[in-house]
Amino acid sequence: MRAFNQSQNSSSSSTGTRRDKPSCSYCNDPEHQVTSCPHVKSDWAMFQSYNIPCSDPNNWTNNPIPNQQGQRSWGTQATQASWFKNPSGWSKWYAQCEKAFDKIKAKELRDAQKSKAKSKGKKAKSCGFCGGTGHNRRDCSEMTALNNRLIRANNHWRQRLFDTFVLEMGLGAGALVKVTEQSGHWNNRTTEEHVAIITSINWNELNMFCHIDRINSNWRNRVHENLQAPIEIKVQVNGRERTLTFPTIGGQNYPVINDVLGRPLIDTFGYNYNSVTFKSVMSPTETPLSEDWLTQGQAECVEFITKRYSYEKLSQWNAIDLLEKYEKRFNLTQQS
User: Fold this and answer.
1) How far apart are CA 4 and CA 10, in angstroms?
2) 221 and 312: one domain?
3) Greatest pairwise CA separation for the chain in angstroms
4) 77 and 162 within one domain
5) What's the CA gap between 98 and 106, in Å, rounded?
6) What is the pLDDT of residues 68-104, one digit of tens each?
7) Residue 151 has what pLDDT?
8) Is residue 12 part of a domain?
9) 73, 129, 188 from 78: Cα distances, Å
10) DSSP code at position 139
11) Burial of 234 (0-12, 13-18, 19+ CB in 10 A)
12) What residues are paired with 38 via a beta bridge?
């Protein structure tokens, strides 16, 4: 599912950079944030008495943190102080001080409310998944039951994909396929055939949400984009990496891949930019997918999704409806 895959890609990326600790948005001191800034209340009090805070020789703008050697000038307290001390910046200083003061008062109010709530005793546990009380996601029986159903449906769908792609068609890394590509425009449009070699298929990202019934649904009742699991097949064509797409069938707007029994299996694909279209298999892969892949059921992905989204949200995003239709069509038991 896209949401899970994006989280994995984000956590596994290593750019070698570290996000800097945010500095105070009022005085630009890197050692604290605006809600704990020691200068705001005293500056605001001076403004309320119709005085400019820098008129006090002890004000922070008259004694800013000096810029360190090699440090860029913008975003430092010294630069902020010089802007505020300039008469042309006094109106901006007043506005920023008022904004910072409001943030501090809001935080103080939140802290007081939290303290009051604690003094009244612990709030009863509530579940972020089902909305029930007396438990949380960790021991939610409804979430566990849904996880089991999704994993079972994924296992079933993966078996169908395995039977179709691996056993029947021989698709996988190293397979030779015949592909077509259209070139030219209008009356000059021609179709060329090429031989391509499959370099990768995103096997581990695939599950039952590869098929979201595009033909019989629209944007209102279709599974949300965050939960879709598009298949992405990469091929080498004449020394260039391309994306492999599939032709539409029967005049439909979307390509659909059927399983070995003619039942819809895939209708959700990755970006088709710079793509060629599948025609036939010339030579099957010599390194077929391991059967261990069938039993994984994307348990980690399922648990991520149900921890992140509530049952209500998954229903709104039409995931529950699609699961129920899949279970009914293939006679899958809903018991844990």
Assistant:
1) 10
2) yes
3) 85
4) no
5) 12
6) 766 666 778 999 999 999 999 899 999 999 999 999 9
7) 93
8) no
9) 8, 49, 66
10) G
11) middle
12) none
Structure tokens at 146: 């849904």
Report if residue 336 sits inside a domain: no
Q: For the beta carbon of residue 314, count every other beta carbon within 10 angstroms.
A: 23
Q: Which domain holds residue 47?
A: 21-118
Residue 121: its pLDDT value, please? Answer: 61
Asked if 101 and 224 sit in the same domain, the reply is no
β-pairing, 190-201 vs 233-237, is antiparallel
Of the candidates 233, 215, 216, 214, which has an alpha carbon nearest to the alpha carbon of residue 172?
Answer: 233
Domain assignment of residue 111, yes or no: yes
Alpha-helix runs per DSSP H in the chain: 2-12, 40-48, 77-85, 90-119, 141-161, 299-308, 311-316, 319-329
Place of tokens 């007043």: 94
Rg of the chain taking only CA atoms, in angstroms: 30
Report yes or no on 10 lying in a domain.
no
Q: Write down the pLDDT at residue 235.
A: 96
195 φ, ψ to 5°?
-100, 130
Domain end position, chosen among 68, 84, 118: 118
Q: How far apart are CA 265 and CA 174, in angstroms?
A: 23
* Total domains, the chain: 2
Same domain, 182 and 325: yes
Let me know whether 37 and 95 are in one domain: yes
Instruction: Give the pLDDT band of residue 17 (cuts 50, 70, 90).
Output: very low
Distant-in-sequence, close-in-space partners of 66: CB < 8 Å, separation ≥ 6 = 78
Question: pLDDT tens digits for 177-236?
Answer: 999 998 877 777 788 999 999 999 999 999 999 999 988 888 788 999 999 999 999 999
Helices 90-119 and 77-85, axial angle in degrees (round to 10): 120
268-277 per-position pLDDT tens digit: 998 777 899 9
Distance CA 258, CA 321 (A): 21
pTM over 0.70: no
